[in-house]
Amino acid sequence: MNQPKRLFDLPYRQLELFPNLNMLNTKVNGQWKAITSKQFIDMVNEVSRGLIAIGVKQGEKVGLISENRLEWNVIDFAIQQVGGVVVAIYPNISDADYEYIFKDANIKVCLVSTDNLYDRINNLKSNLPTLERLYMINPSPGKTNWNELIDAGNTINQTEVEVAKDAVQEDDLVTLIYTSGTTGNPKGVMLSHKNILSNSMAADRPTPTKAYDKSLTFLPACHAYERMIQYLYMYKGMQVYYAESMETIGENMKEIQPHMISAVPRLLEKVYEKIMAKGNELSGIKRKLFFWSVEVGEAYDPDPTKRDFFYDIKYAIAHKLVLSKWKKGLGGNLGAVCSGSAALNQRLMRLYFAAKVNVYEGYGLTEASPLISVNSYQDGVLIGTVGPAIPGVEFKLASDCEIMVKGPNVMLGYYNNPEATAEVLKDGWLYTGDIGEIIDGKFLKIVDRKKEMFKTSGGKYIVPTAIESKMVESDFIEQMMVVGETHKFPAALIVPSYQNLMDWAKANAKDLLSLSKDEFLKSETVYNKIMSEVEKGNIHFGNWEKIKKFAIIPNEFTIDGGELTPTLKLKRKVIAAKYKNEIEMIYQ
């Protein structure tokens, strides 16, 4: 088969090249159940016929709200095949955002996964004048099930689907992805088949996997990154397994022994924290060897020319004694973790590479389909950067160091928003809004979001993400948000690692162990401990950038709490408003 031109060509190509592949795998009643490429295509065609039967025409927007699961992919390709536009929406956004998206996209048909989502959209129906049909994947009494959509397609001949497919061109709009955004209404990013497919195929080069290798998927499929990665898996002919839930990822990895996953830094941090917690339970020589090995791993560089002979001897011992067990704990085969959405701290990055679990950090945004650059086994790894540009994509810096991108992956524009489109698309270049630096003429380093940089009252620029990513390298700082615009100095809201502080207190402040969590975190001893960690981080910054004061926040920033976007970025204005009193106290 020739190279695919439309996204829905991927499963047909896979059937031709890898006919015996267990394409998609879901756990049912405790057993993994495989779906072959042929079975998947049959399911997709069933839904496509149903969509034609209810009148979905080329260019019409169809909503899809679901967690990552087999049916998400079936519905995605089914909408594409009839020339529809997939409006992929997060399951955990606000009712106000649902209302805005449904109205902006003029959604008439929507498929959701669960009772909760069905009820939420159904309750909003009086405010959604265009919505005509709502279907649910999970069967539930009194609710329109998607099997009714499939049954409606029994009157449609497959030739109608083939005619619809033939009418779809590679430059046609295939999806609207509404950016979560940290302020204002979401913007609908228009992406074509060519945009996303070119990105998935370009990601083949830096990905060290092959046909029939296994992958585990668990991030939201509606997010541009995970979606592109799933298309990449299909292009490469890999076996895809759906994690049962976010809580079972560790167990599922041991079961299926994946070769590759995509992840966000928070997940990798949590894996690290669990391993370190086990290390803290050790005693005597085993404990000393464990922490010595971790220290050796934290100094690891994937570039062998940057390691000396004596370090390599220490590393060989540390790997044999401790670090090799990390990979076994993740299934034993995991050789590639594609990390995105936010920066992973460099200490952890080195540690994962030392354990031979290679974390390839990349950079992208929805408007670029989304991948722009990535560290890779073929094109090189430079820790602290997001790697070189992927094939076919180029980047450069504007006069103010804003990153500009050009390539077949750059979006068509923002839906119904020509003014916003004109702001970011200029002369074929996408202005990303991120400030960057190019190292060795090849590797891209992200400095900060252009709109998140601020000035102190003294006129000094502060780059908050650079400070935050360095500070959270501490085992005692879980999350952090830098504040201080228009004030004399930068300060911070800090979510500490309660468990690690408790472990520290067992040896250093036993009198605190009887306190409640709230009392514990308010104690002067804990404040001083966090201050000592902040001072360690401060040495990496100029005097005007050093964190002088901070407030301890007892509860983690979360999506459900409204402090994080669905892609785990800080909603800075929301957090600042929520903790307005704490910030005011800092500066009194």
TrEMBL record:
Domain AMP-dependent synthetase/ligase per the UniProt entry, residue ranges: 30-415
Under the heading InterPro entries, the entry gives: AMP-binding_CS, AMP-dep_synth/lig_dom, ANL_N_sf
Q: Which UniProt keywords apply?
A: Fatty acid metabolism, Ligase, Lipid metabolism
CDD domains, alphabetically?
VL_LC_FACS_like
Recorded superkingdom: Bacteria
Give GO terms: molecular function aspect only: ligase activity
Protein's recorded name? Long-chain fatty acid--CoA ligase
